[in-house]
Amino acid sequence: MEIDKKSFRKMFPNLSEELEDKESKVGIGAVGSDNGEANNSVSKKFHNYNPTVIDFLRRCDTSTQAETIIDYLEKRGELTEEYAAELREQVKRKGVRSFGSKKEENYYLKKGEFC
Description:
This protein has 115 residues and is mainly α. The chain is built from seven helices and no strands. It has one domain.
């Protein structure tokens, strides 16, 4: 099946932009068809790591975003009512940055230690 660039851009605008962009967005750590080889290239630093509520709060820009996350995790039963109240109080008194510096986009990719 052949398709011209204009049609491709219309059908797949994001993919087209990625293909035409000269800057690579994600590094490739392994090449090959062997699953074991590919698995060895994955960052071991965050292997089996489960983000905590603090990790999520560190991605927030505003107190409103932080409160939304706290509400959501409390509603799901991942936070106790008491701990959620403590977190809300800290957000009110000290602000979102009191949980640590902001975790930027691709934090885990940038901070991972690849084999």
